[in-house]
Amino acid sequence: MSGLSQAPSPGVLARLRQALEGLEPLAAARTLQQVFAEVLANLDEADKAEVLMGLAGEPGEDKVSSLVHL
User: Fold this and answer.
1) Using CB atoms within 10 A of its CB, is residue 10 exposed (0-12), middle (13-18) or buried (19+)?
2) 60: which of 18, 32, 35, 50 fits an S-S bond (Cβ 3.0–4.6 Å)?
3) 26 — phi, psi (to 5°)?
4) Which residues lie below 8 Å from residue 2, measured CB to CB, with a gap of 6+?
5) Comparing 6 with 33, which gets the higher pLDDT?
6) pLDDT on residue 7
7) Which residue in 38, 64, 60 sits closest to 47, CA to CA?
């Protein structure tokens, strides 16, 4: 993992929330989608999978392990 274990600082999260707070939910989501696509492009496949599993609310390792046992 190239840094996924590092949580963003509270200040960074606060600035992101502040930047999005004036937008309608769909506009905020589309804005995040564009930024997220740029960030994902710089991750390797393992890190990308971990992030996407986290977005889906699934712990990455447990999900992968359960798929192996199918």
Assistant:
1) exposed
2) 50
3) -70, -40
4) 43, 44, 47
5) 33
6) 77
7) 60
